[in-house]
Amino acid sequence: MHRLAFVTTVVLLSVAAAGCGDGDESSAEVTTTTVESIELPKTVAQVRSGVLRLEVETCDGLAQGTGMLVGPRLIATVEHVVVGASQIVVKQRGANVGTATVIGHDPDRDLALLRTPRGIDGHVFRFARRTPRLGEEVAALGYPLGLPLTVTRGIVSGLNRTLDVDGVRRTRLVQTDAAVNFGNSGGPLLSAKSGEVIGLVDAAARDGEGLAFAVTAKTARPLIEAWAAAPQPVALERCQPESAPPASSASEVYEGYFSSVDRLEVCYADDQGAVCTALPSGKGVSLEPGRGATYLGIVEGSDQGGPAMPLGTSFTTPGGTITCDSSYRGIRCLDDTTGAYFVLGDYRGYLNNGSGDKRF
């Protein structure tokens, strides 16, 4: 049995590439494929304004996923994107359009409905009331790996799938070979021809190719409609302030470029301290011995590569006072002499100059 992983910033997925073939033995089949392929760009142009990026902060780290408008103030997504959220930021076309709260969730079916304080202009999706057709051309829309809106195409490759995901038995899933990655979770799986939502992207096989799964519209629609009519609010988590990483006894000294273990942060260390940048946002921070941590804003030309720091290891800069360590949350660096530090992860950071945590 394939081991599955969710599709968020904290979700681990593999990319599946869809192939195309051609031939002229069946003109009817060729004509059908061509018509649907031509209609897909038109469908994407019509619906893209309703596909939203969700940036979720939790007490344990960060998550990123996708949501879709189902009403002016209502966003449908999958539950694992927003579970344990302390803040949910909604973005449209790269711009922050506000925050959201959860007004309905079902962990067993992996569905959630969010509500925003103000309306969002954009395409309002409708759920298909029919059963998807095996072999039907579909498209997955979302924000994988922090990229802008991304569209991948595939077909419905299986129906009524049952899978065990983290000990939860999920039924009536749609299987597709459309490629999905970190951040696609909660995004719409559309009929390429009609633009109807036939599912919400949910999970994929870690050790397989071309195996992704979506919660069906038939499962999602009644829950979404019930929560919209009778909200069941879920309180945001309250988190303790970020604490400084403990001083390390690491004796290894490192200079030059390096990356976090998940390669979402790139840093440069020398005897002047450490400068790190989050990818793909470009947000940068620095830490200089005795001078504290500084937020640098967007840092240009900071995408140079470097070896990934192994999980659970740390090092000091050549000056000997700054210790950096890496985890799946990102990079953390501490000035051992002053206690100043920064924590830099994808889309979020903390810095402390001795006067309390500051989030950016």
Strand content: 35-45%
| Mean model confidence by pLDDT | 78
Count the domains.
2
CATH secondary-structure class of the largest domain: Mainly Beta
Q: Compute the gyration radius: what is it?
A: 22 Å
Protein structure class: mainly beta
Report the CATH topology name of the largest domain.
Thrombin, subunit H
Q: Say what oligomer this is.
A: single chain
Overall helicity: 10-25%
Topology as H/E string? Answer: EHEEEHEEEEEEEEEEHEEEEEEEEEEE
Q: Please give the largest β-sheet.
A: 7 strands, antiparallel
Which regions have little confidence, pLDDT < 50, spanning 5+ residues?
1-35
CATH architecture descriptor text of the largest domain? Beta Barrel
How many helices in DSSP terms? Answer: 3
- How many distinct beta strands? 25
Query: In angstroms, what separates the terminal alpha carbons?
Result: 42 Å
What strand line-up does the widest sheet have?
6-5-2-3-4-8-7
Cα shape: elongated
